[in-house]
Amino acid sequence: MKRVILSLVAVVAALSVQAQVRTQTNHTISTTLGAGLEYAFEWAPGLGNATLVARAGAASRTWTLSSALDDFFWSTTMAPAVTLEPRYYFLMDWRDRHGKYTRGNSAEFVGVPVTAYFNQKGFGELVVTPQLGVRRAFAKHWFHEFTAGADLLCLPSFKATPHVGYRIGFLF
Questions:
Q1: How far apart are CA 35 and CA 27, in angstroms?
Q2: 127 domain-assigned
Q3: CATH number at residue 151
Q4: What does the DSSP 8-state code read for residue 139?
Q5: Residue 9 domain-assigned?
Q6: Which of 26, 28, 50, 90 has the fewest other C-beta atoms within 10 Å?
Q7: Positive or negative torsion for Cα 152, 153, 158, 164
Q8: Domain for residue 16, yes or no?
Q9: Counted domains in the chain
Q10: From CA 87, how far away is CA 40, in angstroms rounded?
């Protein structure tokens, strides 16, 4: 009986230590570099360092457009949007082993957000953005993240442009 209890205590302790370096489920309210305000729910389903982010709100709609090598400009608008983004935080375990902060999923990640933008007529655009990012939580409830990748406009036509993003928000 004593061995069974000690074994159970060892298993629970091992799972507790392992759970500390895993991703966390959280809620955020954030804004991006362009404009907008979004609510997000990041769900950690227990698959290692993978999460699924569902985001909704008024999102910034920023495209870099270029019709020739010497014609380059930014255009920024804001539109209602819904995003679903699978993420994988690939340096979470390294950060924990080296005593770095991991609260709020503070780590480097790869993600593929799929965003549907809406306009006055209804559905406007579908954008897929493979990206590499860095997320850091600071203070008690704040975070920021920097992302870089490619925006792939899939509907109504196809267009690929570079993506650079910065998000700052409140974590709860």
A1: 20
A2: yes
A3: 2.40.160
A4: T
A5: no
A6: 90
A7: negative
A8: no
A9: 1
A10: 13
